Amino acid sequence: MPALDTPGMDSPSLKVPLDTSQRRIVIRLCGAMTADSAAQVSTQVQAALQGDDSAPLWIDMSRVDLIDSTGFSALLAAYSLAQQRGRAVVLYQVTPPVRLILELTGLDQRLNLVPTLLPPAAPEPGP
Q1: Beta strands 25-33 and 57-67: pairing type?
Q2: pLDDT for 85-97, tens place per residue?
């Protein structure tokens, strides 16, 4: 599973490993999601959403310890791009500080937040 590192100036690096198994795309974020790393997240999301697949995008937020306005902008851009391509976006294991900011800004009403990575849906039965 590839991982990209973008060093932050005063914050830990953000790691963005990508997993496309089990009929979904999973991006696991780790570190600070700030101006230094938001572009990397956007690039990774755009790459993950290439193609005609309708797999939902799951974003693991369990190791995101800091997020600023550019980090939120990257999340909203990911949501918008996925919506344009007919895909769902799910944030899971959102840390309490990040969840609080999402709630204060009302973004928790726009983004789909769930407590954990749910099992993938069973494939549709064939004829």
Answers
A1: parallel
A2: 888 889 999 999 9
**Residue 121 is encoded by which pair of tokens?**
């849906």
Rounded to whole angstroms, how far apart are CA atoms 25 and 89?
10
Name the residue among 47, 48, 105, 117 with its Cα closest to residue 71: 105
16 confidence band (pLDDT: 50, 70, 90)? low
Q: What is the dihedral of CA 92, 97, 98, 100, to 10 degrees?
A: 100
C-alpha span between 71 and 60 (Å, rounded): 14
Helices marked H in 1-127: 38-48, 69-84, 96-105, 107-110
Q: Which of 10, 9, 42, 15 lies closest to 31 in space, CA to CA? A: 15
Task: Specify whether the CB–CB gap between 104 and 72 falls below 8 A.
Answer: no
The dihedral region occupied by 21, where left means phi > 0, alpha psi between -120 and 50, and beta the remainder, is beta
The Cα–Cα gap between 68 and 121 comes to 33
